[in-house]
Structure formats: structure tokens, C-alpha cells
Amino acid sequence: MSKLIISGIPRSGTTYLFRSINNLPQSPWSPHFDKIVDHAHYLNDTIKVHTPYNNFSLNEDIKVIFLHRNLFDCILSNVKTFNHDINHFRNIGSDYNGVLEDKIFDQDILNLEQLFDVWVTNAVFPTLVIKYEHLAECQTQIEDFIERPFSLLPFNLAPGKELDPNIALKISNTYQNLLSKLSALPPIYYT
What is the assigned CATH class of domain 3-190? Predict the structure, then answer.
């Protein structure tokens, strides 16, 4: 059986999908992992990671699911949830150590475009790319890809937040390339 890596833009449902595939209960907290090595969280044959795959051999039998969602919502959710959490920044491969809200609108301090390029644009493992907003309707394709059934946890897709026009403009300018790459993808995409 292949190892399964679940990665994606932070706050795009990676923990939700990890919990669903591993039949773990829904919780606002990260699940218990068998081990954590270099920011990769392991449970059985499933790995949840938001950093590039430096520690995975290209000879390993690995499949990847990469999740993304509305980038404006992701950025705002990261600010709301992890504004001062330096450990979270490390877990997603950033060396930023300030207050997230001070820079994230003007700089890609979380390396989101690099994360996308490593796992999707330059994918070296078979990768299933899914837009979070379409996750529930893609369960059959996910099961076929990972070669095992699972049950999605209850799924609530919250509506996007009202966005200050000045913040929206800053995000649009800062993340222009990534927004273009994400908008070009269909809801589900195989690399």
C-alpha cells in the first residue's frame, strides 16, 4: 500500500481530511500522531505536512493529496487562528517570527506559492489536487486514488468572510501569481 501524504495551503482542510481518512473523531485540535519528524505528522501510513518533501525518497511508493481553497479565506483564517503562533509558522516551513497580520498581506511570508509549486506545479509523486469547496463531492475520486474507502466527517462549508477592499487589493497584488495558478485549476485535478 502506498504512503499517503496530505498537504495543502494551510487552513484548506488538511487536518479535516487527515482525520476523515484515518477514522478519527472531529475536533478543533490536531489529532494524535504516531510521530512528528521535521514538521511531518505521521499516523499509520498517512502523513500530514505543509512543507516541501525534502525527507521523502523519490523511490518510495507515495501518493499525495493537495488541498486548496479560496486564498483570501485561507489568509484571513491563518491570521485569525495563528496570528502569533511561531510554532505554526515553523510547521508550514516559514522562518517568520513576527505577528502574521503585520506582513502576510504584503509578503508571501508563509511561502504559499513555493508550497504549491513543490507539490503541484513540479509534482514528482502522483498527486490529486482538490479544491476544498468541492471536497464532499470528490469522495469517490479520493477513495479510488488512495485505494481504500473512508467516511468524511460532517462537513460544514462556512461562507467567505466580508473582506476589507484594501486588504483584498493587497492580497490580490501580493499573491497575484498564486491566485492565477489556483484559478486555472478545475475542482479536482490529477498531476
Answer: alpha beta
